[in-house]
Amino acid sequence: MSEPTPPTMAYWHVYTDADGVSRQTKCELTQFKFEGVDPQTAPQWNDKQEKTQAGVTFTVLPVGWVGEWHENPRPQWIAILSGRWFVETMDGTRVEMGPGELMMGEDQGTRERDGKKGHLSGTVGDEPCAMIVTGLDVTPTVNQPGRFK
């Protein structure tokens, strides 16, 4: 029997480039291993990230919510549970995300340009956007999109 092919998982990485401009690009988690989370658990595909302290917040953005230009408070994974939202970065890229989509917010250290610093975000459509936000206690990187493999 052949080895099963490991899956990949897409995510959007919002990051700061070397010039202090926020950008976003689609990346993939690719380091999945077929193993149990402990010896008593059946094997499953796991992509274990570096251990760090983390804070989890469940967030519901109301219909019409707009978060004016701002940086992510710290590197954080954002998983959309229901509804839709958008993220627009300083380079003009706007991405809309919905249920099941994942984003890494790592745009700390941007430099204001034309009244923009970080990113603009808001809800899309006529329902609230529910998400789980996992803030990591790690040092943000600069110009390393896709660093989470």
TrEMBL record:
Protein origin, superkingdom: Bacteria
Stored InterPro entries? RmlC-like_jellyroll, RmlC_Cupin_sf
- Biased amino acid composition, Basic and acidic residues: 108-117
Q: Where is this region: Disordered?
A: 96-124
Q: What is this protein called?
A: Cupin domain-containing protein
Q: Which organism is it from?
A: Methylobacterium komagatae
